[in-house]
Amino acid sequence: MILETETGQEKLQRGMLEVNKVLRFSESFKLIKKAVESDGMGFVREQCIIDLYNLGDKRVPGALFHLLDLEGNLGFWVGLAIARLGDKEEVLPRLIERLQDPSIEVKEHVISALGNLGERQLDPEMNQAYRLNASVSDFSQKDDRIIEALLPMLDDPEPRVRSRAVSTLCHLADPRTTERVVKALEDPDRSVRICAANALGSTGDKRAIPALLKALEAGDKEIDSRARQSLDFLGYEGKELKPLASGLFQALAGLNASQAEKFTDEYFELGKDERQDAFSALLRQRFKKKMPGKDKNPG
User: Fold this and answer.
1) How far is CA 107 from CA 68, 167, 181, in A?
2) pTM for this one?
């Protein structure tokens, strides 16, 4: 085995390169921070915030806290950088305190930041597994301070804040919050109800199914579409409706009890598109039987 050796000169050169790298890094931080704090064009500031985030410098969170009131993507990236780069025990109390800010934008960005901070507590593979219907008990080790800080935001007077709280809590998928979050399906503001219908599927908690089914009764196409998607994510196939469906098929298609039961079993084994085709075919067959045929001429 050949061991690589490094001469004194080579060590010196390597050390100088490392020093230059640190100096350039430090200078980059100062320059980018200055650009972020300027009143320049939005897309330039957004890119600078992203660059600060990518630097990974631990000074970034402290440098960005006062920019949480920036609108849109700017504030989102500020919150993300704070959540992902900051020391949890340092940034968490400061984020929770900012939830009392009167600004809607600040509350929205802080809620998202808390969601990202909470997500850091999960193992990435386990987090993905949850979306594939892992047991809710696998995710009981979250920081209670984050959950306790977010729950009151469900009652905030601003719909935008309530919507952000709903989506964030659903994303964190803590089973202790499901009963509170499903109430958002009855929120007086339609945008909050749409958000809840869309986000509840990511909880992985089947206790949300009855509330989502009830939401389908509202007759709102947007909520209906989002709720059905969430039901799919939760693995709901409608099999609980088998007795009702069997009676419906029996009445509409003129089937006897045995035929209706057989068709119902086959129907619920199909995919959504195939179910529609099967039901249409059943109705066509029914109407075809009812159509009068032409009389044949005798002899």
Assistant:
1) 9, 14, 18
2) 0.65
